[in-house]
Amino acid sequence: MNNQKRFIISGGGTGGHIFPAVAIANALKKNIPDCEILFVGAEGRMEMQKVPEAGYPIKGLPIAGLQRSLDFKNLLLPFKVLKSVTMAMKIIAEFKPDVAIGVGGYASAPLLFAAKLKGVPFVIQEQNSYAGITNKILGKWAQKICVAYDDMENFFPKEKIVFTGNPVRAAISGSKITKQESLNFFDLVENKKTVLIIGGSLGARTINQSIDAGIEKINAENIQSIWQTGKGYFETAKQKANNSIKVFDFIKQMDMAYAAADVIISRAGALSVSELCIVAKPCVLVPSPNVAEDHQTKNALSLVNKNAALMIKDAEAKDKLVDAVLQLMKDETQQKNLSAAIKNLAIADADERIVKQILN
Predict the structure, then answer these.
(1) How far apart are CA 350 and CA 274, in angstroms?
(2) Same domain, 228 and 292
(3) Rounded distance between C-alpha atoms, residue 293 and residue 295, angstroms
(4) Pick from 123, 139, 163: which residue ends a domain?
(5) Do 128 and 184 belong together in one domain?
(6) pLDDT tens across 135-188, in order?
(7) Phi/psi of residue 199, each to 5°?
(8) pLDDT in tens, 190-217
């Protein structure tokens, strides 16, 4: 009889769902080298490319998200859900997983619902401080719910919640890169302070516009910049690039970027916050207002309330962001205090903690 363990991991849509999913898969492989892992995602989304790049097979479902505006696509949604659940039932029947794992995003809903119908136990990993609608609905049937923030009993049955933290990419959690190596990588100099500006994998318009408006001020203070703009703003920002301002649409080597930075400007997505805790650099967070239930503000406040980060509201960023960063750059004591406080919140072994719950 074949005792080989099999796991299905579902979810995706953004890097914030995909990177933790791959980290969980890697940790499962580390614990059970001969286990089989299958990913299930949404057709046409980022996971269909990123998961195979990480070395895992993936099957796509025709599921889509609900459009917030009045949109003809919403009329097709019930049919897509029905088709996706039917396909997910077939995938489960053929693959016969021991456990299913949902990491959020609408791709996980049909798969976990099919798992429930087929009697397959499942674990949910909720990355945010405010639970997504998919996870809230499915939480009552999950065996365990792995969370990264306090007070999650507002959304889930208390007895099912396990505090594990969010898994981050191994390249970041295990990075041994020196400051000098990273500065060389970006062709920057040692005798200047460096600010890293990141707006998530897709960029952040408000952060980009705020930096664009204040880049001369930053330059005047003898500060160099690594600026990830996202595709949409890259052509505009590229015109400002010079020896001290390095502009990228996307930075693949984030371990290098984090190592080079003295101060970081970032959105407050759950994965970004978890990575910032690991790298333990002083940061200024600008939460995106364009997310469900304003969860990025809640993510940011979980740091701000512990004196572990500064926060500037999106609506105030154009007036206040650059000045706040310049002030922080001059205040070595505040930098040290923020670094020490954020480091205390880091959970480097979140992937192992989650795998322990899955194997139980």
Answers:
(1) 10
(2) yes
(3) 5
(4) 163
(5) no
(6) 888 999 999 999 998 889 999 999 999 999 999 888 888 889 999 999 999 999
(7) -120, 35
(8) 999 999 999 766 668 899 999 999 988 9
204 and 308 Cβ atoms separated by less than 8 Å: no
The tally of domains found in the chain comes to 2
Confidence of residue 266 (pLDDT cuts 50, 70, 90): very high
187, 319: one domain: yes
Mean pLDDT of 36-43: 94
Greater confidence, 14 or 142? 142
Whole-number Å distance between alpha carbons of 358 and 294: 30
Tell me: do 210 and 87 sit in the same domain.
no
Give the residue from 140, 163, 186 where a domain finishes: 163
Shared-domain flag, residues 281 and 176: yes
* 245/220 same-domain check: yes
